[in-house]
Amino acid sequence: MKRTKITYWISTSIVALMMTFSAYSYLTKPEIAAGFHHLGYPDYFRVELAVAKLIGAVLLLAPVPSRLKEWTYSGFTIVFISAFIAHTASADPVNYRMMPLIFLAVLILSYISYHRLRPVASPTPATSLSKA
Q1: What's the pTM value of the predicted model, to 2 decimals?
Q2: Is residue 132 part of a domain?
Q3: How far does CA 36 lie from the centroid of its chain?
Q4: How many domains, in total, are found in the chain?
Q5: Mind listing the pLDDT tens digit for each residue in 46-74?
Q6: Residue 126 domain-assigned?
Q7: Residue numbers of the domain that contains 64
Q8: pLDDT tens-digit profile of 100-130?
């Protein structure tokens, strides 16, 4: 249990830090804006993605309901796969293509350890319709 908890917090922190750093870069670095143009994305998408990454980083670290956490993991999975596809379609260097897959692997590690830490929900007892 202790190993799982350490694995969860390290992997989740890495993903959250990377998403926060990339969101900051999306909003402040002109070379990142040029990279989005190179990939064929409009400028407003860079801002939307930065905001979504910041919200997702907070949701990964915060004690939020399980359903919200699941949506966060799903959203980041879509972001990483989409980044891989965009860099591949633009014929970018291999390191640009591999980084989203590496972070996807760290996200998967976080997701697996998150589920190992969650208590198994017991089924709710069926309500009886007996007359009282």
Answers
A1: 0.81
A2: no
A3: 19
A4: 1
A5: 999 999 999 999 999 999 898 999 999 99
A6: no
A7: 2-117
A8: 999 999 999 999 999 988 876 555 555 545 5
